[in-house]
Amino acid sequence: MNRLALCALATLTIAAVHPRAQSSATPPVVINDGYGDYLFVPAGAFMMGDTHGDGESRERPAHRVELDAYYIGKFEITNAAWRAFRDDPGYD
């Protein structure tokens, strides 16, 4: 499997955290589910697209994107780590 495919698989393992489902306590900055460290990314917004006028036409118009809070893998996933996750009996 190539590096791009592994990054795509790692992206699929992101655990989304819906803001209304969170308790009043601040979520942990790093968690580990036995398959590696995941970092907390708080909810927020950013401008996506060409904001300087020097990009390609497909990058316009720039627009605001809002994301819910989520966890993302701290490191790229390896083939061995993916197989361990895939073969875990708790994986559906």
Give your account of this protein's structure.
This protein has two helices and six strands, in the order H-E-E-E-E-E-E-H. The protein has 92 residues and is an alpha+beta fold. The strands form two sheets. A four-stranded antiparallel β-sheet has the order 1-6-3-2. A hairpin with a 4-residue loop joins strand 2 (30-32) and strand 3 (37-41). The two termini are 21 Å apart. The model is unreliable at 1-22 (pLDDT under 50).
Through-space gap between termini = 21 Å
- Strands of the widest sheet, in order across it, are 1-6-3-2
- Indicate the low-confidence ranges by residue numbers: 1-22
> Strand tally, please?
6
Overall residue-averaged pLDDT value: 79
Beta-strand content: 25-35%
The helix content, as a percent range, equals 10-25%
Largest sheet: 4 strands, antiparallel
H and E string: HEEEEEEH
Shape field? elongated
What Rg, in angstroms, do the CA atoms define?
A: 17 Å
Structural class by SSE content? alpha+beta
- Put simply, the count of helices is 2
Please describe the topology of this protein.
Blueprint: H1 3-12, E1 15-16, E2 30-32, E3 37-41, E4 44-48, E5 63-67, E6 70-73, H2 79-87
Antiparallel strand pairs: 1-6, 2-3, 3-6, 4-5
Question: What key attributes describe this structure?
Answer:
alpha+beta, 26% strand, 92 residues
In short:
This protein is of the alpha+beta class and 92 residues long.
